[in-house]
Amino acid sequence: MSDDKVYHHPIEKLRDPKRLAFLETDKVVKYCLEGISPRTVLDVGTGSGIFAEAFFHLGLKVTGVDIQEPMLEAARIYVPGASFQLASSENLPFEENAFDLVFLGLLLHESEQPLKTLKESARVCTLRAAVLEWPYKEEGYGPPLKHRIEPEQLKGLAVSSGFSRVRTIPLKLLSLYLLDK
Protein backbone atom coordinates (compact mmCIF):
# COMPACT_ATOMS: atom_id res chain seq x y z
CA MET A 1 0.00 0.00 0.00
CA SER A 2 1.34 3.44 -0.91
CA ASP A 3 1.50 6.47 1.33
CA ASP A 4 -0.98 8.26 -0.95
CA LYS A 5 -4.39 8.37 0.64
CA VAL A 6 -7.34 7.73 -1.62
CA TYR A 7 -10.13 10.21 -0.93
CA HIS A 8 -13.64 9.01 -1.49
CA HIS A 9 -15.16 12.38 -0.81
CA PRO A 10 -13.67 15.88 -1.21
CA ILE A 11 -14.49 16.78 2.40
CA GLU A 12 -12.02 14.16 3.59
CA LYS A 13 -9.28 15.92 1.63
CA LEU A 14 -10.12 19.27 3.23
CA ARG A 15 -9.80 17.75 6.68
CA ASP A 16 -6.66 15.74 6.04
CA PRO A 17 -4.28 16.13 9.03
CA LYS A 18 -1.50 17.45 6.76
CA ARG A 19 -3.80 20.17 5.43
CA LEU A 20 -4.96 21.03 8.96
CA ALA A 21 -1.32 21.43 10.03
CA PHE A 22 -0.69 23.59 6.96
CA LEU A 23 -3.55 25.91 7.95
CA GLU A 24 -2.19 26.41 11.51
CA THR A 25 -5.80 26.69 12.66
CA ASP A 26 -5.13 27.17 16.38
CA LYS A 27 -2.51 29.85 15.77
CA VAL A 28 -4.73 31.66 13.24
CA VAL A 29 -7.70 31.67 15.62
CA LYS A 30 -5.51 32.95 18.47
CA TYR A 31 -4.29 35.86 16.32
CA CYS A 32 -7.84 36.61 15.16
CA LEU A 33 -9.01 37.02 18.74
CA GLU A 34 -5.96 38.88 20.05
CA GLY A 35 -6.85 42.23 21.60
CA ILE A 36 -10.62 41.88 21.13
CA SER A 37 -13.38 40.08 23.02
CA PRO A 38 -15.82 38.86 20.40
CA ARG A 39 -18.94 36.86 21.19
CA THR A 40 -20.07 36.23 17.61
CA VAL A 41 -18.15 35.09 14.52
CA LEU A 42 -19.11 34.84 10.87
CA ASP A 43 -17.00 32.35 8.91
CA VAL A 44 -17.32 33.38 5.25
CA GLY A 45 -16.55 30.60 2.80
CA THR A 46 -16.69 28.14 5.68
CA GLY A 47 -16.13 25.03 3.57
CA SER A 48 -16.31 22.01 5.85
CA GLY A 49 -16.23 24.28 8.91
CA ILE A 50 -12.61 23.89 10.00
CA PHE A 51 -12.30 27.42 11.39
CA ALA A 52 -15.94 27.56 12.46
CA GLU A 53 -15.25 24.51 14.60
CA ALA A 54 -12.17 26.10 16.17
CA PHE A 55 -14.05 29.30 17.05
CA PHE A 56 -17.02 27.29 18.33
CA HIS A 57 -14.83 25.23 20.67
CA LEU A 58 -13.72 28.48 22.29
CA GLY A 59 -17.31 29.22 23.25
CA LEU A 60 -18.13 31.71 20.51
CA LYS A 61 -21.46 31.83 18.71
CA VAL A 62 -20.57 30.87 15.14
CA THR A 63 -22.38 31.32 11.84
CA GLY A 64 -20.90 30.08 8.59
CA VAL A 65 -21.77 30.78 4.97
CA ASP A 66 -20.65 29.13 1.77
CA ILE A 67 -21.82 28.99 -1.85
CA GLN A 68 -21.69 25.19 -1.96
CA GLU A 69 -24.44 23.25 -0.21
CA PRO A 70 -22.33 20.03 0.07
CA MET A 71 -19.76 22.01 2.08
CA LEU A 72 -22.47 23.35 4.36
CA GLU A 73 -23.83 19.83 4.89
CA ALA A 74 -20.36 18.72 6.01
CA ALA A 75 -19.92 21.77 8.25
CA ARG A 76 -23.24 21.00 9.95
CA ILE A 77 -21.95 17.51 10.76
CA TYR A 78 -18.60 18.72 12.13
CA VAL A 79 -20.02 21.72 14.02
CA PRO A 80 -23.62 20.88 14.93
CA GLY A 81 -23.81 23.75 17.43
CA ALA A 82 -23.17 26.42 14.79
CA SER A 83 -25.53 27.87 12.20
CA PHE A 84 -24.76 27.48 8.48
CA GLN A 85 -26.46 28.90 5.41
CA LEU A 86 -26.01 29.31 1.69
CA ALA A 87 -24.68 32.77 0.78
CA SER A 88 -21.95 34.46 -1.24
CA SER A 89 -19.25 36.67 0.22
CA GLU A 90 -20.39 39.56 -1.98
CA ASN A 91 -23.96 39.53 -0.64
CA LEU A 92 -24.12 38.55 3.03
CA PRO A 93 -27.72 38.08 4.25
CA PHE A 94 -27.19 39.76 7.62
CA GLU A 95 -27.92 43.11 9.20
CA GLU A 96 -25.23 45.71 9.78
CA ASN A 97 -22.99 44.98 12.75
CA ALA A 98 -24.44 41.47 13.17
CA PHE A 99 -21.08 39.91 14.13
CA ASP A 100 -18.10 40.95 16.21
CA LEU A 101 -15.58 39.11 14.00
CA VAL A 102 -15.74 38.11 10.33
CA PHE A 103 -13.28 35.46 9.17
CA LEU A 104 -12.40 34.82 5.51
CA GLY A 105 -10.17 31.76 5.13
CA LEU A 106 -8.47 31.38 1.74
CA LEU A 107 -11.47 33.03 0.14
CA LEU A 108 -10.61 36.56 -0.95
CA HIS A 109 -8.42 35.48 -3.88
CA GLU A 110 -11.39 33.39 -5.11
CA SER A 111 -13.85 36.29 -4.99
CA GLU A 112 -14.86 37.81 -8.31
CA GLN A 113 -15.34 41.11 -6.47
CA PRO A 114 -12.85 41.30 -3.58
CA LEU A 115 -13.74 44.94 -2.82
CA LYS A 116 -17.42 44.06 -2.50
CA THR A 117 -16.51 41.07 -0.32
CA LEU A 118 -14.53 43.28 2.06
CA LYS A 119 -17.24 45.97 2.06
CA GLU A 120 -19.79 43.32 3.02
CA SER A 121 -17.44 42.06 5.74
CA ALA A 122 -17.04 45.58 7.10
CA ARG A 123 -20.80 46.15 6.98
CA VAL A 124 -21.62 43.10 9.10
CA CYS A 125 -18.77 43.27 11.63
CA THR A 126 -18.31 45.45 14.67
CA LEU A 127 -14.67 44.80 15.62
CA ARG A 128 -12.52 43.03 13.06
CA ALA A 129 -12.32 41.04 9.87
CA ALA A 130 -9.54 38.49 9.53
CA VAL A 131 -8.35 37.43 6.08
CA LEU A 132 -6.23 34.31 5.72
CA GLU A 133 -4.54 34.25 2.32
CA TRP A 134 -1.73 32.81 0.27
CA PRO A 135 1.45 34.88 0.37
CA TYR A 136 2.15 36.82 -2.80
CA LYS A 137 4.92 34.67 -4.20
CA GLU A 138 5.24 31.83 -6.65
CA GLU A 139 5.19 28.51 -4.84
CA GLY A 140 4.85 24.84 -5.66
CA TYR A 141 1.48 24.71 -3.89
CA GLY A 142 -1.65 26.79 -3.83
CA PRO A 143 -2.90 28.98 -6.66
CA PRO A 144 -0.57 30.49 -9.29
CA LEU A 145 0.80 33.96 -8.59
CA LYS A 146 -1.73 35.63 -10.92
CA HIS A 147 -4.54 34.37 -8.64
CA ARG A 148 -2.96 35.65 -5.42
CA ILE A 149 -3.51 39.08 -3.88
CA GLU A 150 -0.64 41.51 -3.42
CA PRO A 151 -0.41 42.72 0.21
CA GLU A 152 -0.61 46.40 -0.78
CA GLN A 153 -3.67 45.67 -2.91
CA LEU A 154 -5.33 43.91 0.03
CA LYS A 155 -4.51 46.82 2.33
CA GLY A 156 -5.96 49.29 -0.20
CA LEU A 157 -9.14 47.25 -0.52
CA ALA A 158 -9.44 47.07 3.27
CA VAL A 159 -9.10 50.84 3.71
CA SER A 160 -11.57 51.44 0.85
CA SER A 161 -13.99 49.12 2.65
CA GLY A 162 -13.96 51.12 5.87
CA PHE A 163 -11.33 49.39 7.96
CA SER A 164 -9.07 51.77 9.87
CA ARG A 165 -6.12 49.52 10.62
CA VAL A 166 -4.54 46.62 8.72
CA ARG A 167 -1.93 44.34 10.24
CA THR A 168 -0.14 41.51 8.45
CA ILE A 169 0.95 38.40 10.32
CA PRO A 170 3.19 36.06 8.34
CA LEU A 171 2.63 32.40 9.15
CA LYS A 172 4.75 29.41 8.11
CA LEU A 173 3.03 29.05 4.74
CA LEU A 174 0.17 31.56 4.68
CA SER A 175 -0.47 35.21 5.58
CA LEU A 176 -3.07 36.53 8.00
CA TYR A 177 -4.42 40.07 7.71
CA LEU A 178 -6.26 41.60 10.64
CA LEU A 179 -8.57 44.40 9.53
CA ASP A 180 -9.79 46.46 12.46
CA LYS A 181 -12.80 48.80 12.33
Provide keyphrases for this structure:
Rossmann fold; 7 strands; 7 helices; alpha/beta
Plain-language structure description:
- The chain is α/β, with parallel strands linked by helices.
- The protein has one domain: Vaccinia Virus protein VP39 (Rossmann fold, 3-Layer(aba) Sandwich).
- The protein contains seven helices and seven strands, in the order H-H-H-E-H-E-H-E-E-H-E-H-E-E.
- The protein has helices at residues 10-14, 17-23, 25-33, 50-56, 69-78, 114-124, 151-160; strands spanning 40-44, 61-66, 83-86, 99-105, 125-133, 165-170, 175-180.
- It has a seven-stranded mixed sheet with strand order 3-2-1-4-5-7-6, sandwiched between helices.
- The radius of gyration is 16 Å and the shape is globular.
- The relative contact order is 0.15.
- Mean pLDDT is 92; it is low at 1-8.
Shape: globular
Number of helices: 7
Radius of gyration: 16 Å
Give the spatial strand order of the biggest sheet: 3-2-1-4-5-7-6
- What is the succession of H and E elements? HHHEHEHEEHEHEE
Tally of strands: 7
Classify the helix fraction into a percent range.
Answer: 25-40%
Structurally, the number of domains stands at 1
Write the CATH architecture name: 3-Layer(aba) Sandwich
From the helix content, strand content and strand pairing, which structural class follows?
alpha/beta
Distance between the termini: 52 Å
CATH class: Alpha Beta
Uncertain spans: 1-8
What is CATH's topology name? Answer: Rossmann fold
**Per DSSP, what share of the residues sits in E-state strands of 2 or more residues?**
15-25%
CATH level 4 superfamily: Vaccinia Virus protein VP39
